[in-house]
Amino acid sequence: MQHLEALTREAAALAQGVLPLTGDEAEVGRVMQICNACRYCEGFCAVFPAMTRRLEFAKADIHYLSNLCHNCGACYHACQYAPPHEFAVNVPQAMAKVRAQTYADYAWPGAFGGLYRRAGLATALALAAGLVLFLVLAVAMRGSLLHAPLAGNFYAIFPHNLLAAMFGAVFGFAVLALGVGVTRFWRKVSPGEVEGEARGPAIGGAAHDALRLRYLDGGHGQGCNNADDAFTLWRRRFHHFTFYGFMLCFAATAVATLYHYLLDLHAPYALGSLPVLLGTAGGIGLLIGPAGLLWLNLKRDPRTGDAAQKPMDRGFIALLFLTSLSGLALLAWRDSAAMALLLALHLGVVMALFLTLPYGKFAHGIYRSAALLKWNIEKRRPGNLALGSD
Fold it and tell me: Is residue 390 very low, low, confident or very high in pLDDT (cuts 50, 70, 90)?
């Protein structure tokens, strides 16, 4: 034990003395040097075997490992060097802080990177703007938010082409901004990738890990630590409800688009139609998942997260929940005299969600998937140690 403590002190001193890092990045570098000497948590998740392939941790390595971390908290509760030990090793918290920094550093356009640091305010303003926009448009087009029933015909309120142009432009920009950002991230953390490595088994492995949320099992299948050192699988389950609920809603929109343009079948669609069934199932998932994630977030041990990110986390959760709630309410009362009001509220929330996609919590799924791809490439290589890269 004395030998290990001496080794970890030496590693910590090395980290503090030679790493060209500052602030939160330097802290991740410091704890990774200590963890690399200890290696007790090597089987917990992908971070630790990826760590053991490195002798030094430069900025790109710190960004990669921080986005590979799923913040399950297991390593914090297992660590003998966690606070109040003098080494004060807290991997989940240190990496959570760096993750938010990477989103801002790689954001496109770069001037918008600051929105991550003010995500709570940005979410509130986007929601207010979206609601005002569509409420005013609804009054301008119908003269009132209450009207004679329109048999669920949304396009009697807002023309299809207007909605397609508005949401298509905003969603297209979100895809472009996230695409440019994650490409910048990939080029920085993956210099010198051999052509063809990011194909076949590596892509399949990364997709498998991402879709199953493999690393939210705590490394032993019992789940994450949330409020304390007790294990729970509920964080993984609520993430699944959220992700697959979102994908089902996206599928409903895609199918409705095909119906409209290819089959010349226009909304409103019957309750038993495929778009409505997919949207309803997705909407239920997006009620259960975000509600559960908010509950867990409120109970989360503050020692394993970054308090500064709570507005970003909770703002995104709230937008997902409100998108689903307003959508299901619109479906239930689409034949009523309040359809214009419900439609304006739903579209306003969805617009806020689209506006904040590239500059909020949604980004973590994109960057983490890229980190998982790098890990699935890396672990298929010979186990040569890397010296780190800027």
Answer: low
- Helix, strand or coil for residue 232? strand
What is the per-residue DSSP string for 66-104? HHH-----HHHHH-TTSTTSTT---HHHHHHHHHHHHHH
Average pLDDT, the chain: 90
* CA gap 283, 285 in Å, rounded: 5
Is residue 158 within 8 Å of residue 137, measured between CB atoms? yes
Residue 9 and residue 3: Cα distance in Å, rounded? 10
Mean pLDDT of the region 61-80: 94
Identity (one letter) of the amino acid at 10? E
Cβ–Cβ under 8 Å, residues 346 and 157? no
C-alpha to C-alpha distance for 190 and 220, rounded to whole angstroms:
29
Tens of pLDDT, residues 232-257:
999 999 999 999 999 999 999 999 99
6-18 tens-digit pLDDT? 445 445 544 444 4
Q: Contact 286/321 with Cβ under 8 angstroms? A: yes
pLDDT of amino acid 381: 82
Q: Taking the alpha carbons of 126, 131, 137, 140 in that order, is the dihedral positive or negative?
A: negative
Q: What is the 3-state secondary structure (H, E, C) of 171-229?
A: HHHHHHHHHHHHHHHHHHHCCCCCCCCCCCHHHHHHHHHHHHCHHHCCCCCCCEECCCC
Among candidate residues 295, 294, 332, 328, the one with its CA nearest the CA of residue 313: 294
Q: Please state, in angstroms and rounded to a whole number, the distance separating the CA atoms of residues 382 and 53.
A: 10
Q: What is the mean pLDDT of residues 297-307?
A: 94
Six token digits for residue 178: 């996230």
Element spanning 231, H or E: strand 231-232
Torsion-angle region of 45 (φ positive above 0: left; ψ -120 to 50: alpha; else: beta): beta
361-384 average pLDDT score: 90
**pLDDT digit string, tens, across residues 207-218:** 999 999 999 987
**From CA 29, how far away is CA 50, in angstroms rounded?**
14
State pTM to two decimals: 0.90
Q: Residue ranges per domain, the chain?
A: 117-164+212-362
Residues whose CB is less than 8 angstroms from the CB of residue 266 and which lie 6 or more positions away in sequence, other chains included = 155, 160, 259, 260
DSSP string, 11-71: HHHHHHHH----HHHHHHHHHHHHHHHH-TTTTTSTHHHHHTTBSS--HHHHHHHHHH---
